[in-house]
Amino acid sequence: MPKHGKKFRNAVKAYDAATAYEMPEGVKLALEASYAKFDETVDVAIKLGVDPKYSDQMVRGAVTLPHGLGKEIRVAAFCQGDKEAEAKEAGADAVGGDDLVQQVKDGWLEFDKAVATPDMMAKVGLIGRVLGPRGLMPNAKTGTVTFDIGTAVKELKAGKVEFKVDKAGILHAPLGKVSFGPEKILDNMRALVDTVIRLKPSAAKGTYLQSITVATTMGPGVKVESSTVQKYIEA
Q1: End-to-end Cα, the chain, rounded Å
Q2: d(Cα 54, Cα 52) in Å, to the nearest integer?
Q3: pTM score, two decimals?
Q4: Strand partners, 164
Q5: Nearest alpha carbon to residue 92 among 76, 115, 114
Q6: What is residue 1's predicted lDDT score, i.e. its pLDDT?
Q7: Fewer Cβ in 10 A, N or C end of the chain?
Q8: To which protein family does this belong (predicted)?
Q9: Would the pLDDT of 211 be above 50?
Q10: Which pLDDT does position 35 carry in this prediction?
């Protein structure tokens, strides 16, 4: 077991770590447990009742959070011709075709998200080994491979979050910053969980949302009652 500092231990004492709280209360407690001097990111971990080794049980998607993420997102757009001007006008931080692919090959990775037009994917695929492990590879399922490059760039700049269940069946996603306060984080969480529920694979059996935990960057995790989240999404 890793050793935790005094501030972490004190934060844990403020609530019952074994209890799963209703969604609003869980978010509030997670924010109150934040103790770092910087504006921590709030994250959620959702354990799903799926087996990701089967393709028909893979859960992957994206959602534009109503309040964004509270940070500047640098977007690279792989496109050519008139699509370059469209991407630049939408706010892309880096735009290009072969030249941008070569930059990445040479080691440049000063961006947080990437989008590409379908005609560029063969070339972007050549740097897949660089982009893939960093979660930067454009993907049609998350809307980042499209000829509507302007809209894709704008959505990412506004706080669009991509997510994918891992090998253990857990989905991790950011919800914003502690400074957002409980209501905005709750709104963002509603949007995310609603999207995850909508993406439930037909092949998934049993309980789909098995557990939900909210935590800040440095703070302890607070369990959220997964069986009651639906009523807060519909509220």
Answers
A1: 39
A2: 5
A3: 0.79
A4: 60
A5: 76
A6: 42
A7: N
A8: Belongs to the universal ribosomal protein uL1 family.
A9: yes
A10: 82
Tokens 């640098």 belong to which residue? 74
Per the structure block, which two tokens stand in for 200?
């439930």
Token readout for 94 is: 């880096």
Q: How far apart are CA 34 and CA 28, in angstroms?
A: 10
Spell out the domains of the chain, with CATH numbers in brackets.
17-68+160-232 (3.30.190.20), 75-157 (3.40.50.790)
The residue behind tokens 């063969």 is 122
Amino acid at 155: E
Say if residue 64's pLDDT is above 70: yes
Question: For residues 225 and 212, what is the distance between their CA atoms, to the nearest angstrom?
Answer: 7
DSSP string for 67-81: T--SSPPPEEEE--T
Reported as a single tens digit per residue, the pLDDT across 183-202 is 999 999 999 999 999 999 99
Q: Please write the tens of the pLDDT for every residue from 136-181.
A: 999 998 899 999 999 999 999 988 898 999 999 999 999 999 999 9
Contact 124, 139 (CB under 8 A): no
Average pLDDT score over residue span 41-67: 93
Q: How far apart are CA 124 and CA 208, in angstroms?
A: 35
For residues 72 and 5, which has the higher predicted lDDT (pLDDT)? 72
Distance (Å, rounded) from C-alpha 93 to C-alpha 95?
A: 7
Q: HSE-up of 155 (CA within 13 Å, CB side)?
A: 19
How far, in Å, CA of 117 to CA of 113, rounded? 14
